[in-house]
Structure formats: structure tokens, C-alpha cells
Amino acid sequence: MEIIIHSRHLDATEAIKNYINKKASKLTKYSSKINKIQYTLKIEGNNNIVEAICSAARATLVAEAIDADMYAAIDLVMDKLEKQIIKQKEKLKQPRRSRKGEAPIEEEEDEG
């Protein structure tokens, strides 16, 4: 997995880069098909903004978080990516429909 870190209006310290790498490596437990994650760190006023673009095998996931603390913003964006990866994985596990436009047949139980 390739991790790219861009910073705008600030110099990303080694501590921040290591923190992002550590957090990003935990995302591989949800999906091994992640090719690349690109992070953009920005400061606008008093807000720290972290954007993440995750390129996986079948999808591109995007998350953004804003917080006063850079580490908290990184945590928030990781949580959002984690939820998106889990949702995408569950979506792929669902069985496909047999014909286009045909809803799956559900069995109804009669009461009484």
C-alpha cells in the first residue's frame, strides 16, 4: 500500500507522518485490496483539515475531517475511511440479483 502525504500551509513533521502511517496500516485489516491512500493536510484559520483519498480495487473512497487539533482530525478521517471500507466490503458480499430490475423473492409467514 502506497501512502502519500501532502501538506498545504504547514510543514508536516515526522511525528505527524509516522502517526498517519501507523493509522493507515491498520486499515489493511479491513481490506487487503487498498492500493494507495493520499492525505492532504491543510490549515485554514484555526481549523486543521485532513482529506484522504483511498484507491481500492473497485472503489475510490474520499473522507474529510476538520478539527482544532491535527491529530484529532487524522483520527476522525481514519474513522470515516474505516466505515466506508466496511460498508463497501459488505456491499460486495451481498448476492447479486438474477435479472435486471427483478427484486429478490422474500418469503412471508402467515400468522394464525
In short:
Helix content is 32%, strand content 32%.
Alpha-beta content class = alpha+beta
CATH architecture: 2-Layer Sandwich
What is the C-level CATH assignment? Alpha Beta
Number of domains: 1
Series of secondary-structure elements, N-terminal to C-terminal: EHEEEH
How many β strands by DSSP? 4
Shape: elongated
Sheet having the most strands? 4 strands, mixed
Describe this protein's structure:
With 112 residues, the protein is α+β, with helices and mostly antiparallel strands. It has one domain: Ribosome hibernation promotion factor-like (Double Stranded RNA Binding Domain, 2-Layer Sandwich), CATH 3.30.160.100. Helix content is 32%, strand content 32%. The protein contains 2 helices and 4 strands. A 4-stranded mixed sheet has the order 1-2-3-4, covered by helices on one side. Strand 1, helix 1 and strand 2 form a beta-alpha-beta unit. Helix 1 packs parallel to helix 2. The longest helix has 24 residues. The chain is elongated, with a radius of gyration of 19 Å. The mean pLDDT is 85. This is Ribosome hibernation promoting factor. It holds the Pfam family Ribosomal_S30AE. Associates exclusively with 100S ribosomes, which are dimers of 70S ribosomes. Keywords: Translation regulation. GO terms for molecular function: ribosomal small subunit binding.
